[in-house]
Recover the amino acids of this structure.
């Protein structure tokens, strides 16, 4: 092979060093992160899984429990079932958030990313926006689809929920917010540990295992640590009526969850800024 | 132009780069040569702002890399190993890079053509051979049409044809007036590509000079003289102030070229059977220079460990 296409002279734009002239800004960084996010197959897979688990399991559980919920023996509210699938969709949100960061460290891509955009804060902000945007939309669409499908079966038994019912619309939007928050939390942990398996284990354990285990702590200790664990504090916004009666109010819980995510994200950012790529 | 001033990088107790000062000038190929673990990649990562120097500084055309808002248009880099996601296609990889620096999309096809990857542009890079990966890395480096090009071990994994291609490309880029900085642990490769050499070992600069100067200074040479009158010839040459070493059946003479030695011996009526200029290879010169700075050296199987 021969080299043919290089120019004969270097074309140096005399204005190139002057700040503000043709200089790409945050919009370019955001676009780059968006392209990066959607050009690996894991993103499509995880998003599809989020939808299938979130909407599918809601419909399934509503279909199988509608008759019992309508009967006099029922000791649970239909509101606890109508966003049930989101409990499992959480896993895929965590996977997406983790991979958005750790796949770059696993493959060495992070060096290409930071060589292209040395402003690390901008890289992190762009990643966060892409994650939050995608997961919010996916979460809302999934919860809405689950509601429409599940409510079909509840309606047949005469116990259907209207969107105007207490907490219904909030739980659909809340599903999007909670998924987005989980993705950010996972990405932040990814920045701290830089390793896919480690980051996934930590976040999944924190949300699913530790959140349940602390309930075993004695008395008020157990009650409050359990209420404040991110998986418990954040989840109540995503359901009209929770199975777990011992939770913070939806918006209070979500505020606590957001604060927790913010703290981990700040730690992740500081580590990202300081450490070598 | 790349300017490093007392550049130092330590990792815990290890010093990877030790107060290194050098300049990489535009318009020529500068080879960055050293054994594995000499600190080449660390230095290159510091040039790109990926690793933060412990002390000292390095600038590209007068500015730190991080200060450029579109760095890919200033410095094109082929990074060590493959900074690629295996699941992404070559075209998509170039697409996000171009987007990040406001580089027009048309340039993507241009660089794909330049490195000969058009046919596989939409294949996932995980399926690429080592050589194809290197070519993509070079496409990335050239994407922003940068005045400064930094290539870390560009010929790794390339076949002979690919190696020649990189060599030609590097020389061409330099001829266009760009700054070209290429690292390698292969002296033989550098000898064919570089005009200027920066040799490092254990994080320190061992030589910083032109290729011809390096050859003159470090590649030892002598004239091999064979004669049936070895003793007389040796005496004669020593009396003439030359350095003579008797080795087996031959004399190794330093201090005068072959023609001069021939004339001297002939005019004294002595016979010669052989008169040859022997020059040690650049590879040997490099090995000698860096012998003390090789991090992991293997002992020969027959050798008894001391």
């Amino acid at each position: 092979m021969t080299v043919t296409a290089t120019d004969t002279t270097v074309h140096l734009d005399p204005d190139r060093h002057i700040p503000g002239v043709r200089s790409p800004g945050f919009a370019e960084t955001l676009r780059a992160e968006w392209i990066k996010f959607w050009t690996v197959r894991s993103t499509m897979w995880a998003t599809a899984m989020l939808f299938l688990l979130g909407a599918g399991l809601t419909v399934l559980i509503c279909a199988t429990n509608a008759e019992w919920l309508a009967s006099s023996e029922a000791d649970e509210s239909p509101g606890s079932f109508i966003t049930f699938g989101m409990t499992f969709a959480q896993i895929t949100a965590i996977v997406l958030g983790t991979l958005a960061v750790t796949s770059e460290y696993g493959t060495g891509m992070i060096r290409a990313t930071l060589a292209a955009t040395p402003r690390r804060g901008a890289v992190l902000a762009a990643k966060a926006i892409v994650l939050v945007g995608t997961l919010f939309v996916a979460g809302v669409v999934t919860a809405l689809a689950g509601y429409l499908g599940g409510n079909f079966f509840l309606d047949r038994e005469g116990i259907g929920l209207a969107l105007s019912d207490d907490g219904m619309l909030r739980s659909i939007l809340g599903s999007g917010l909670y998924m987005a928050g989980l993705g950010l939390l996972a990405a932040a942990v990814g920045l701290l540990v830089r390793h896919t398996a480690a980051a996934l284990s930590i976040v999944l354990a924190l949300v699913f295992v530790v959140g349940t285990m602390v309930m075993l702590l004695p008395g008020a200790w157990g009650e409050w640590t359990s209420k404040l664990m991110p998986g418990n504090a954040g989840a109540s916004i995503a359901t009209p009526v929770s199975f777990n009666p011992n939770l913070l109010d939806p918006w209070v819980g979500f505020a606590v969850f957001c604060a927790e995510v913010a703290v981990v994200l700040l730690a992740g950012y500081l580590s990202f800024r300081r450490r070598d790529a | 132009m790349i300017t490093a001033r007392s550049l130092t990088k330590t990792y815990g107790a290890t010093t990877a780069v030790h107060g290194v000062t050098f300049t990489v000038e535009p318009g020529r190929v500068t080879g960055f040569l050293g054994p594995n673990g000499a600190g080449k990649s660390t230095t290159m990562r510091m040039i790109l702002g990926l690793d933060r120097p412990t002390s000292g500084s390095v600038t590209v055309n007068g500015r730190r890399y991080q200060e450029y808002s579109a760095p890919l248009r200033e410095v094109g880099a082929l990074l060590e190993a493959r900074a690629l996601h295996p699941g992404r296609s070559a075209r998509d990889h170039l697409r996000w890079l171009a987007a990040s620096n406001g580089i027009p999309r048309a340039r993507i096809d241009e660089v794909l053509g330049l490195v000969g990857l058009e046919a596989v542009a939409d294949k996932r890079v995980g399926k690429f051979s080592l050589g194809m990966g290197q070519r993509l890395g070079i496409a990335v480096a050239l994407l922003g049409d940068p005045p400064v090009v930094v290539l870390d071990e560009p010929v790794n994994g390339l076949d002979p044809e690919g190696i020649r291609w990189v060599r030609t490309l590097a020389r061409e880029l330099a001829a266009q007036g760009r700054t070209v900085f290429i690292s390698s642990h292969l002296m033989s490769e550098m000898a064919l590509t570089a005009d200027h050499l920066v040799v490092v070992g254990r994080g320190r600069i061992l030589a910083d000079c032109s290729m011809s100067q390096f050859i003159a200074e470090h590649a030892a040479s002598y004239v091999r003289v064979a004669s049936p009158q070895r003793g007389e010839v040796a005496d004669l040459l020593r009396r003439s102030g030359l350095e003579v070493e008797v080795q087996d059946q031959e004399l190794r003479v330093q201090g005068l070229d072959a023609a001069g030695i021939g004339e001297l011996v002939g005019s004294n009526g002595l016979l010669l059977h052989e008169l040859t200029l022997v020059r040690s290879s650049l590879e040997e010169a490099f090995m000698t220079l860096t012998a003390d700075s090789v991090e992991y050296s293997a002992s020969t199987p027959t050798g008894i460990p001391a």
Summary: The longest helix of chain A spans residues 120-156.
